[in-house]
Amino acid sequence: MFESFDALFLARAQFAFTVSFHFIFPAFSIGLASFLMVLEALWLKTGKGVYANLYRYWLKIFAIAFAMGVVSGIVMSYQFGTNWSVFSDKAGPVIGPLMAYEVLTAFFLEAGFLGVMLFGINKVGPRLHFAATCMVALGTFISAFWILSVNSWMQTPTGYEIGANGQFLPGPSWAAIIFNPSFPYRLVHTVIAAYLTTAFVVGAVGAWHLLRDRANPGARKMFSMAMWMAALVAPVQIFAGDMHGLNTLEHQPAKVMAMEGHYQSHPDGAPLILFGIPNSAEKRVDYAVEIPKASSLILKHDADAPLAGLDTIAEDRHPPVGTVFWAFRIMVGIGFGMLGLGLWSLAARARRKLYDWSWLHRAAIVMGPSGFIAVIAGWVTTEVGRQPWTIYGLLRTADSAAPLDAPAVAASLLAFIVVYFAVFGAGTFYILKLMDKPPEPHEEAVPTHGPVRTAGITPAPAIEGGQP
């Protein structure tokens, strides 16, 4: 039944499937760890029980999302040695140490303090517990740092040498490898995306409970905090994305050509194609809706600046234009949707109606999963736009795969699909069940009898009063 598919296509499909599942959870847990850090800091500063209640509420969700992120990430490591063994052999001397640094720094840091964060809330003092929360939040960022450094090096490889056996070897400076040309832009853009993803999930949960009970202090607080993030950070993300795009134009022009749908060069200013249907056979975008010269204005800051098209690049080096074209528009469209919701919330806040406008709350619920869609669309834009290369301009994807038969790869792909949807579907369902429960303003205090804790006080006593 798999005779119509080759092993390369199936290996790419398997990695795309597993990494898409995996990417969802870190994109949520990175932002949620920082949100928990902010909540605990606000509790320590103000003593208001609402922050302690929200901390407990989101801590349960964080634990599940973090666990699913770790488990789903382990599978991808095995794929490097099975489906992509040639890539691992050639690039291992460079990317292997970077992946090891991620384990030695981020993973060990998270593992060391996660237990205190999850189970020590009633057993250690508040400042020590806050320090553990900070370390976990820092660990998630460091993990993103190393993973994005690896990915960015594959996009814009620098600091390497080619060995006699064809391997990529580290040059005299690891800094040139780690801080490759696209890494700072990709790190900022991705981490902000994770924060916005979390903010819109938190905002959607707050809005859901506000529609049920507008007086719930936890729902009001989380919705307010999320809308501040949407209003203040979404414009920053749009600016960061623009800077990332300019960097991509410099180092990966074919990707930008596919994003813009520019099959042909435009010597007197290129149009911005808003919508259309890419037609790679005819080398044009059918039914294009475009703004004349706007693409040159955005990319070159000059409406009459020439822009090269895919006609200047050999056809066997073209990325799949249709996929990149639409993934980019989904990402950008969601970004402006986030900005619109943030501005709407500012208008409601200015009129003191933030907790009263039900249509704003409904819109926030609709936008709840938007961050996940945006990060997946951004990942597709980045990775599919890099094709046909695994290491851009140096190692083709077709030359990176292991010599496996298609049925072998297909069997593992089917197994992953079944297991992933069963396991992670159940985990996601449980997270949604937790979110459906409103944050309680008066949780029970920790019993004072017996050896409940070893030192200090914790957020638990503050919950008894439940003061907002």
From TrEMBL:
Residues 442-468 are annotated as: Disordered. The keyword Transmembrane helix applies. The keyword Heme applies. It is found in: Cell inner membrane; Cell membrane. It comes from the Bacteria. Belongs to the cytochrome ubiquinol oxidase subunit 1 family. This is Cytochrome bd-I ubiquinol oxidase subunit 1 apoprotein. It comes from Novosphingobium panipatense.
